[in-house]
Automatic annotation (TrEMBL), chains A, B, C, D:
One of its GO terms (molecular function) is 4-hydroxy-tetrahydrodipicolinate reductase. This is 4-hydroxy-tetrahydrodipicolinate reductase. Residues 1-98 form the Dihydrodipicolinate reductase N-terminal domain. GO terms for biological process: diaminopimelate biosynthetic process; lysine biosynthetic process via diaminopimelate. Pathway: Amino-acid biosynthesis; L-lysine biosynthesis via DAP pathway; (S)-tetrahydrodipicolinate from L-aspartate: step 4/4. Catalyzes the conversion of 4-hydroxy-tetrahydrodipicolinate (HTPA) to tetrahydrodipicolinate. The gene is dapB. It catalyses: (S)-2,3,4,5-tetrahydrodipicolinate + NADP(+) + H2O = (2S,4S)-4-hydroxy-2,3,4,5-tetrahydrodipicolinate + NADPH + H(+); (S)-2,3,4,5-tetrahydrodipicolinate + NAD(+) + H2O = (2S,4S)-4-hydroxy-2,3,4,5-tetrahydrodipicolinate + NADH + H(+). The keyword Oxidoreductase applies. Its main location: cytoplasm. It comes from Halanaerobium salsuginis. InterPro entries: DapB_C, DapB_N, DHDPR_bac, NAD(P)-bd_dom_sf.
Length: 214, 214, 214, 214
């Protein structure tokens, strides 16, 4: 497919281009802040840029009337409302985390929650590289909200660890441990690829990445 | 409740008595091979004995007409058929593994299976104490059957490890790891307790421990 | 050998008796608070009681003039001085942690310290059962002191975990992880056995468990 | 310093150039098979090429009379003898594994060996990415040789795992686990950097990377 990236020079933009090109797709539209480089009309648009550039993304999609896959973080309530409005016209797939593994982990946590009661102990640990600013990670906070009870989040900062999240549930008899580790940004670009390939078949509407996975 | 144990002197029998008594229940019937010690009529019967004693268990249950929770391993196809016949008269709860955690793990594996395709790598590791005869463990073989693809089972024998099973799924972008560790036989006796407490409310029928958990 | 235990009814006392008897030694002297039960003269004395009973231990050893292996926690500076004085007369082996594994781990940490500089990240995690009062554990604090730099100690309380300590060192290129897990009090009783068997051959003097291991 | 790389276009060659340049050193000599690109005389030479190119490396070093750091794998007994001969003239640092972590792990394993006897169980696990051909890894085989007893090596192939090695020692009371994970080739280039910086101060002689670490 012919695709476009808003935020093409960012780390996610570069990784997405790498994976998509490897899978035979063609990057025909690139946008970084005000600079646009277009060689043809894209069939879908991917946005991994900054929340500040969001209004421009809205205009572009309204004009091109193509599916949008957006992973830009920092979108606020109003932005999400605007995305829902846009979704009346085109398929919009929005997520703050396009990793297949983290999304599966979220489902597993909800499952485990149903079986266990308050008598089970709960611990969460997240490990990231030494330069990560958020502590604890946004993903850890998101996973913590899925649990029925408050949980302490142990945050470790070690070397070049790309990102690991672990949740442990324990009774006096046994322990269940669910863990996810992302090796690289490919954990996310693969989810974007899955979404892009699905988008071409979707009716207009607002979809989360979880919806695409199901 | 008043309960009875067939195989009362075995390790599981003793652990079940410990946990049940701690929870306020009374052991009124004990059987070990030919020796019976009964002080009152039990409301339910628990069997963690040997497959060779199975015919006697059938007679006892038919006579007493009470629910049966049976965890005896080594039952063959005919035994299971006889249990199904018995289940026409009383509730029968049968499992080869009464650990809540292992049963949850089984459900999670089936879930993960649905989301992932053959491109994901699969590894399973089981760790047990140095005296464990089965290699790999029966539980590992049971979990392996739940996976859509053949998997290599790495079996480690270390010290006094009671029992740990881990399944890892990996793509080029990320890794998902599901692990269960039993601290002691309490991992199983808690599942038996759950089943016994449920059994008093059940209609005659054959139930697996998975059914009780749901 | 014929041996005696001060604190014989405590959990460590019972575990020590179990392991020593399994190894062919005879328990000929038992003391719990004021109650003494002696059937013969012990060749060595083991003390795993309370710091409040320490003065009585001193008297008993002075009177019997036999080696003392003491693991009683909570001894203060004065108590240790008194032990050093006692050591002029008999061999005294004193430690707050008789686990062979933790003592080896301590040596390994010191080794790793020599090779790595301040540019390496450091994280420590300790996991114990839900009833453990100290947080973080005394052992974690002791291990932390061996490191050249301050380290954050992540303390997890999960089910029936007997005791696990993990130290991770990471540079931007790699990670080294050292971990110890005690399955049960046998981790400590084995170190006491090693010390007791060594004590019979020692000259009067004050020995740490580390000295015995070397 | 001004440095040269034989095998400059290989993955290790590129990583070494990246790290060395980041640390202010200048790449003045590049060789790939028959192609040489030299802008100045190097002060030291690094070789991460193929065993088949080894004779040319020998000639180059003899001619330039500069220190050699060589990590080329697949060198045979004769090659190593020739290196020892060369070491009469210049400092030669040779290793099959320039990771600081793996070398420390080797020392730790030897340490643990001294304290433990044959009653301890031993297990080794190595995990690498799905494309790794050697099974088990060369590093695992090297670490296995350091242990006093034969050990089973469990080899896992998962996704994009760069390289992890774990050794577990267990008695009936406790478990000790030593683990190393390389995040990337930087685990090795850092060891090469350490060696190169040391080489400028060394007398002619044959040095292993372990010697440099001490």
């Amino acid at each position: 497919m012919k695709y476009g990236i808003i935020g093409a020079s960012g780390r996610m933009g570069q990784e997405i281009a790498r994976l998509f090109n490897k899978n035979g797709h063609q990057l025909v539209y690139r946008k970084d802040e005000k600079e646009v480089d277009a060689s043809a009309e894209p069939e879908i648009m991917i946005d991994f840029s900054l929340a500040s550039a969001f209004p421009e993304t809205l205009s572009i999609i309204k004009e091109k009337s193509i599916p949008l896959i957006i992973g830009t973080t920092g979108l606020n309530k109003d932005n999400l409302t605007e995305l829902h409005n846009l979704a009346a016209e085109v398929p919009v797939i929005q997520s703050f985390n396009f990793s297949i593994g983290i999304n599966i982990l979220s489902k597993l946590i909800s499952q485990v929650n149903n079986y266990l009661d308050k008598s089970w102990d709960l611990e969460m640990t997240e490990t990231h590289h030494r330069f990560k600013k958020d502590k604890p990670s946004g993903t850890a906070l998101m996973l913590a909200e899925l649990l029925k009870q408050p949980v302490e989040i142990h945050a470790k900062r070690l070397g070049s660890e790309f990102g690991e999240h672990k949740i442990e549930f324990a009774s006096t008899g046994e322990l269940i441990s669910l863990k996810h580790r992302a090796y690289s940004r490919e954990a996310f670009s693969r989810g974007v690829l899955l979404s892009a390939e699905a988008a071409l078949e979707l009716e207009p509407g607002f979809y989360s990445f979880q919806d695409i996975l199901n």
